[in-house]
Design the sequence.
């Protein structure tokens, strides 16, 4: 399967990420999270459903952004549709996510043995 180039847009207040979060994509993602996370005290939704490559370095970027926002009193919510690359990576890494932008934030059971 051919990976798509990294792209990201803000759609209805959600940062929608598509393609490969490769070396370029990781830098761009970090910058986008900083830009759209604002003062870190609000809520930022990041939809990863159309990501076709999400390496551990990108997971680290997301984890650090989640922690920074949480410490500042904000929230970063990750979205990944069931069966997508991002959903499988987030599940294995035990990061909280929801399966739809419209879902209430209630992470699905990971189903990963401890």
Sequence:
């Amino acid at each position: 399967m051919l990976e798509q180039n990294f792209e990201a847009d803000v759609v209805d207040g959600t940062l929608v990420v598509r393609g490969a979060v490769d070396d370029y994509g990781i830098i761009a993602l970090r910058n986008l999270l900083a830009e759209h996370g604002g003062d870190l005290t609000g809520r930022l939704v990041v939809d990863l459903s159309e990501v076709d490559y999400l390496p551990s370095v990108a997971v680290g970027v997301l984890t650090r952004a989640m922690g920074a926002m949480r410490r500042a009193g904000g929230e970063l919510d990750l979205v990944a549709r069931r069966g997508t690359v991002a959903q499988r990576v987030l599940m294995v890494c035990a990061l909280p996510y929801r399966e739809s932008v419209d879902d209430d934030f209630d992470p699905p059971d990971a189903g990963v043995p401890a």
